[in-house]
Amino acid sequence: MERLAALIFLQLNNYQIANSLGISKESVSRSKRRLRSILNLNAELSLEDHITGLDNTDKNRK
């Protein structure tokens, strides 16, 4: 999950993530659904927006 989140943070698409992790694009989609569930994200916020927004949230705390 951490590697998936890092690759999402780098704004790679599912095809690029699949190649990086050595899995299928369908497995990437499944993993993203699991990660959304673990993070309890509502349907209005995309996983990609949430993860890329973490960097901005961290800067606002300092």
Descriptive notes:
The protein has one domain (2-61). α2 crosses α3 (25-39). With 62 residues, the protein is mainly alpha-helical. It has helices at 2-9, 14-21, 25-39, 47-61. It contains four helices and no strands. The radius of gyration is 12 Å and the shape is globular.
The averaged pLDDT comes out at: 91
Number of strands: 0
Q: What is the SS-derived class?
A: mainly alpha
Beta fraction: under 5%
Number of helical regions: 4
How much is the radius of gyration in Å?
Answer: 12 Å
Level of helix content? over 70%
Shape: globular
What is the string of helix and strand elements? HHHH
Ends apart, CA distance between termini: 26 Å
Write down the domain tally. Answer: 1
Low-confidence stretches: none
**What can be said about the biggest beta sheet?**
none
How are the SSEs placed, and which strands pair?
Blueprint: H1 2-9, H2 14-21, H3 25-39, H4 47-61
Characterize this entry briefly.
With 62 residues, this protein is mostly helical. It has 4 helices and no strands.
Task: Label this structure with key terms.
4 helices; 62 residues; globular; mainly alpha
